[in-house]
Amino acid sequence: MKLDLLQALNTERAARRAAVLVTDIASGAQRLVRAAEAAADPLADLVAQHLRTGKSGMAETPAGRVFLTVHVPPPRLVVIGAVHISQALAPMAKLLGYDVTIVDPRTAFASPERFPDVPLIAEWPDVALPPLGVDRYTAFVALTHDPKIDDPALLHALARDCFYVGALGSRKTHARRVERLTAAGLDAATIARIHAPIGLSIGAVSPPEIAVSILAEITARLRLPAEARASVEPAPEKAAS
Amino acid sequence: MLARDDDILKAAEDWRAAGKGVALATVVETWGSAPRPVGSALVIDEEGRFLGSVSGGCVEGAVVSEALDVIASGTPRMLEFGVADETAWRVGLSCGGTIRVFVEKVE
Fold first, then answer.
1. Residue A236 domain-assigned?
2. Which residues in chain A land under pLDDT 70?
3. Using CA atoms, how far apart are residues A93 and B2, in angstroms rounded to an integer?
4. Which residues on chain B are in Cβ contact (under 8 Å) with A70?
5. Start and end of every XdhC- CoxI domain (chain B) (predicted)?
6. Last residue of a domain, one of A71, A103, A120
7. Whose CA, among A20, A222, B78, B89, lies 20 to 30 Å from A53?
C-alpha cells in the first residue's frame, strides 16, 4: 500500500467516516473509495453493498478479482449516567473496542476519581450530546434513572440512527417513560427501539453483571442478523396505548 | 492494551513515516472455522516487530517471516494456511479452517 493512501485511509477513520479500500489481487494496485464518493465509483453497487454490511471480502469484477477492505468507524458507546454500573461498563466496553464517553451533569457522580481514563462530560445532555456527533455506529445507554437527564438524552439518540438504544429501569419505570416520550411526540415504533429493561436476561445482579448483560445485548445488536437475535432477545413488548 | 484495527493501521503509517520498512498482512478469504474474520490485519516492521493478528496465534510467525521477504522485495504475496496444507507450510490452523492472507509492503 502506498503511504499516502494509508494516510488518507487513516484520516477517514479518525474522522469516523466509512471508506473501502479496493485491492486488485493480481497486480496489487489499490484505491480508496470514501463513502461519500461511493455512488460515483465504477464498482458503486459492490462498494455500497459492502458498506451496508460492514464486511470485507473478495469479489469478481469485469477487471479481475478484487479484495474490498471495509473500514467503518469503530463502534462508540455513549453512557448517560456516571453511576455504579457505568464504572464497570466503561472499562469492559473499552476492552470490546468501543470508544466510550460518559455524560452526567451531576459532578458528584461525574468525577475523574470514579472514572479514570474515560472521557467524562459533566454537562446536561442538551449541552453534552450535540458535539459528540452521535451516529449509526453509536450504542447509547441511559442509566441515571432520572427522567430529567435520561429523557432528553433518549430523545437525542432516537432522533439519530444509533444501532442500539437502551434504558435502565423496571417494566413499570419504562411504562412511565413510554408515557412521557409519547407525550413528547414520539410514535410507538420509535419508542419501541429502546431496549428496556436494558440488557439480556441473564439474572444479572451486581453492577458488573448488569454491565455484562448490557454489553451482551449491544454485541447481539451489532453482530447478529435480525432473525438470529430473536433467540437471545425477549420479544418486543407492545407500547402502552 | 489490546490492539484495535485503528491502532494497527496507525502503527503502519507511523512506523513507515519513521523510516522503517513495513508490511501489512490482511486476511482476505476464510473457509471453515477461521479464528479471525476477513479484513483482520497484522502490521510488521523490518525488525519483525508486529501488531494485530490474522489468526489465533497459529500462523503469525510464518506471516512475519514472509512479510520480511515482502519488505525486502516490494512484491505482494498471497499466503494460504490450512490444516490440509501441511506439506506446503510447516504451520497450520488447529481449528481446522483455511485462511488466505495478502501481504503487501507499505511504500
1. no
2. 234-241
3. 12
4. 39
5. 15-82
6. A71
7. B78
| CA B34 – CA B94 distance, rounded (Å) | 10
The total number of structural domains in chain B stands at 1
Q: Do A23 and B102 touch (CB under 8 A)?
A: yes
The verdict on a CB contact (< 8 Å) between A28 and B104 is: yes
ipTM above 0.85, yes or no: no
Query: Is the Cβ pair B39, A55 closer than 8 Å?
Result: yes
Domain extent at residue B102: 5-106
Residue A22 maps to a domain: yes
Domain range for A55 is 3-71
In this prediction the pTM is 0.74
- Judgement on whether residues A26 and A126 belong to the same structural domain of the protein: no
Total tally of structural domains belonging to chain A:
2
Residues on chain B touching A3 (C-beta within 8 angstroms): 13, 16-17, 106-107
Out of A52, A71, A90, a domain closes at A71
- Residue A225 CB neighbours (<10 A): 8
C-alpha grid cell, residue A39? 455512488
Q: In 3D, which of B78, B81, B77 has the Cα closest to residue B55? A: B81
pLDDT digits (tens, 9 = 90+) for A97-147: 899 999 999 999 999 999 998 999 999 999 999 999 998 889 999 999 999
HEC string of chain B equals: CCCCHHHHHHHHHHHHHCCCCEEEEEEEEEECCCCCCCCCEEEEECCCCEEECCCCCCCHHHHHHHHHHHHHHCCCEEEEEEHHHCCCCCCCCCCCCEEEEEEEEEC
